[in-house]
Amino acid sequence: MADAAKGVRQLVLLHGHAEARRMIAPSDLPLLKIASEVLGDESGQKGYSYSGLCLTSLPHRKLADDQAWVRTVGPLTLIIEPGRIKIGDEPPKMMGVPHGARARLILIYLQTQAVQTNSRDIGLGRSMRAWMGKMGLASGGETAAALKEQARRIATCSMRFSWKTPGSVPSNSTMMSNERIIKSGLFFHDAITSEDGRQDNLFEDRVILDSDFFEQLKRHPVPLQDAAIRQLKDSSTALDIYVWLAYRLHHLDQRTAIGWRDLHQQFGAGYKNLFQFKPRFLQCLSEAVSAYPEARVDVEESHIMLHPSPPPVKKLG
Asked: Which branch of life, at top level (predicted)?
């Protein structure tokens, strides 16, 4: 299916959207939409993500509220532990680990604002409302409730990255960092609907990022294309693959094979068997490649082959 994405992309470049639509199979229409929107984007707007979150990821589905999340990719391990929150007169409750596409979008927004303003103090207010609207996310109803829940999970959880350091003794083989992402804030107020139907205070809040995480983010920001995020906003797996490729491909100096078992370990949480995971991964890979026109990825029987590629947007100057 990654080959289909490349074919669709070439047709859009050579013939334009309307003509390409007549030339492809109906099953490839979603890929055509993604490729056309990304290739046609002239805004130049960027998002950013910390490199550690490009290599590891949040869970795709909800875990038990008291369950921690651990993912290891090569020398890097991500550990997320749920936190507690007290709302009103209720006893403190365990919030659970953030999960799904909405949590990823919130994190991308916070990291983007921090990089662009060079500040860990982030105002939400109408800027976040506007960004969510641009992403195609309504600020009311079920979407607002989902955003608020994921925001509270992000605000209360602890998130740590552990790197294996070459040559160190076993008792001192890791380097710990980033115990929390959020120092304070991100507890969205309940929306109050005004007489004209607007929900004015849903995002009226400020967030202060943890200083250690902010410093790591400034040192290792990975540029993303805003239009690509918008097209992949409903698929946590496609978002994960896109940000992984955005980080990985332009760091390569030679083609690199990634076996299916390694891909299953990195992206296949929730899929017990490889034969169940592979079709879903290929579908999401096609979507991610459609949103990343510069990506050079080949699918083989036993692996996928990554080729050195330009980043989706120019790196920070």
From this structure: Bacteria
242 in a structural domain:
no
| Residue 151 tokens, joined | 């925001």
Q: What total number of domains does the chain contain?
A: 1
Q: How many CA atoms lie within 13 A of 224 on its CB side?
A: 34
Question: What's the number of CA atoms in the CB half-sphere (13 Å) around residue 85?
Answer: 22
Where helices occur in 56-179 by DSSP H, the ranges are: 100-117, 125-134, 141-156
The closest of 68, 70, 148, 134 to 102, measured between CA atoms, is 148
Q: Which amino acid is at 145?
A: A
Please state whether beta strands 297-299 and 303-306 pair in parallel, antiparallel, or not at all (unpaired): antiparallel
Nearest in space to 52 (alpha carbons), one of 259, 240, 262: 240
Phi–psi pair at 13, nearest 5 degrees: -65, -40
With respect to residue 163, please indicate whether it lies within any of the assigned structural domains.
yes
Q: Locate 282 and state its tokens.
A: 């290929």
pTM to 2 decimal places? 0.86
Q: Is residue 18 part of a domain?
A: no
